[in-house]
Amino acid sequence: MNHVSKGPLADINRSAVTPFVRQLLCSESAEILDWEYQALYGGGGDLGAGLVGIYHFSGHASDHGQVVPWSLVLKSTQTTGSEDIIDYFTREWFAYHSGFLGQLSGHIVAPRCFGTSKQPDNLLWIWLENLVDADEQPWSLESYAQVARHFGQWNGGYLTGDPLPDYAWFCPSTSREWALQAAPEIEFLRTSLEHPVIQQMYPAGQAQTILDLWDKRETFFRTLEQLPQTVCHNDAFRRNLFRRHTGDGRDQTIAIDWANLGWGAVGEEVATMVMGNLAFNEVDWTLVAEFTTLMFESYLDGLRDAGWNGDPRMVRLGFTAAAAMKYSLPYGLQYLCTEEGQAWLGQLLHQNREEALSGLVEKRAFTLDLADEARSLMEELDLR
Question: What is the pTM assigned to this prediction?
Fold first, then answer.
């Protein structure tokens, strides 16, 4: 297929794709012979694909008399059309367009970007390299530990001398931004305690505990803002990460989906590295204690590699407080109270309905324990 006749990709043709293929192949003379595309899906499955379009383009090109394969990814998102509104859906485009992600060259890098553009109908396009993971499937605990250490080294660099960027499009607080998404779901929970699915999903007083936590959310937000600040990816779990072994023998972690990029507290990155992977069943739940300890200690090792030797309790507080705010609060709760929503959850987690719902209860209980630990650390460190 050499042309898309309708939909958001209607204007893409051979001449539009050729410059990116030539960049990929490092050839000014390469000519596309054929190409096709297919839709991809993000970490949130089909629900996420309805918000952000991700497409894999592939084909063949003629280059100096040889036929060579090529492969690219196009990420497309729709904006409000206002230059003044920077949100989840536009932030990643700015991250690539500004050159910030292209400057990353250590253990944490972004995919190679071949171009960004503004399209009609308020669409933003990002052309990226197509990534292939160099590691085993699924990852071993050792691989997760190395990734956590890489993020510690990256975060630690901003704590030990690298200047904090001052971009207007940086997310000032993902905990606050995620809480805004949870607000309507909290009200639904508050008024639907007798709903049979709510009672199944929130047994043994969990619903009231969540409502109490929501009412005290400003304490957690203020605490996170008082901790040492760094730059965070803020969504660094397995489905957004690849591992690569470079030609000079280094190991790199390639992170995709930078829509939550912004400032964050030291340790806040660990919240997603632990809870994001547990939430999506990337790590066996029976390993929860070992995995959590390993990720935290490996991240702490990375901070020390970067020369940061602050109080580990502050790192632990950043982790536990962020986990409480980002992973205890309900998201998509009204949708999960429908048969369609429960089917989506099962598909996302590769489980049947009962397994998926009971897993939410168990994971939430663990996150609420982290919330209790955060409260204790706040008192111990006098940060409230």
Answer: 0.92
Distance CA 199, CA 206 (A): 9
Asked whether the predicted pLDDT for residue 49 surpasses 80, the reply is: no
Same domain, 17 and 148: no
The neighbouring-strand residues paired with 119 are: 123
List, in order, residues 6 or more apart from 144 with CB less than 8 Å away.
238, 273, 277, 283, 291, 294, 295, 298
Is the same domain home to 118 and 258? no
Query: What single-letter amino acid sits at 370?
Result: L
The set of residues, in sequence order, having a beta carbon less than 8 Å from that of 279 and lying 6+ positions away, is 237, 327, 363
pLDDT at site 320: 98
Buried b (16+ CB within 10 A) or exposed e, 165-181: eebebbbebbbbbbbee
CA distances in angstroms from 253 to 98, 112, 139, 140, listed in the order given: 21, 13, 13, 15
Q: Domain holding 182: CATH number?
A: 3.90.1200
User: Looking at the DSSP assignment, which residues form a beta bridge with residue 253?
Assistant: 108, 243
In three-state form (DSSP H/G/I as H, E/B as E, the rest C), the secondary structure along 101-126 is: HHHCCCCEECCCEEEEEEEHHHEEEE
Sign of CA dihedral 43, 129, 157, 86: negative
DSSP 3-state of 366 = helix
Asked, for residue 1, whether it belongs to a domain, the answer is no
- The model's pLDDT over 82-93, given as tens digits with 9 standing for 90+, comes to 555 557 778 999
**Hunting for tokens 């639904």 — which residue is that?**
188
Alpha-carbon distances of 264 from 40, 43, 210, 270, rounded to whole Å = 29, 22, 23, 11
CA 377, distance to chain mean position in Å, is 26
- Beta bridge pairs of residue 71: 58
Answer whether residue 273 is part of any domain.
Answer: yes
* Euclidean distance between CA atoms 49 and 257, whole angstroms: 13
CATH number of the domain residue 67 falls in: 3.30.200
Structural domain harbouring 45: 7-129
Same domain, 162 and 77: no
